[in-house]
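Sample entry (248 residues):
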Amino acid sequence: MFPIRDHNPSGRVPYVTYILMAANIGIFLSYVPLLSQERALYDFYNTFALVPARVSDGYGFEGLITSMFLHGGWMHLAGNMLFLWIYGDNVEDEMGHVPYLLFYTAAGIAAGLTQVAFEPSSRIPMVGASGAIAGVMGAYLLLYPKAKIDILVIFIVFFRIFPIPAWIMLMLWFAMQTIGGIGADPDAGGTAFWAHAGGFVAGLLLAIPVWLKRGGLAFWQRNEGQPPHPEKTYPRINSSRIPKVKRR
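Predicted structure, serialized as tokens:
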């Protein structure tokens, strides 16, 4: 089950979201040659990634920022940019460009600090924009819980696209991160589940002032839990082109 798009265009061009996507993609492309050089890649990550043990010892705090623009591979980058593209434009539209950039940065820092809090002795470099993007997802949950998200469901050779309310998708995702964090081995590397969960909660909390300024519950009622713009529709792709033969 994978989100592929939403039905909620923004009211203005999301310049900051586009700039963040361009920065992440551009920085990743700049060190693509290192992906095939294990030692050089580790040294690069060790220099610019977030290493929880260093922060616990009182240094390496710059990694809280630099790690947000690094990724471990093509799929890591593609997944993060897809999520940022789906959720970022509406949150930026509601917050404004500069406040959204500050919000994104704060959520990313909070995500990194959460990972440090749960794995303070880990010396495994942590990279990715996932924590900051999780913050955007948390804000989206608060501001637009009933917005439609299209998910792609794949089961062997069967696939379909279903629209579901954002709150279902986002709460499932958050639950998966929390469960993953509880069961994770801090010395094994892999996904930084606690950074995801921490970023999500931070984003939700940081978005509360915006939600209250818009009227809180009245904001939900006024827009029915969705962005205040006409819903975007897409061509139906689930229906088959094969003619149906009726039974006699």
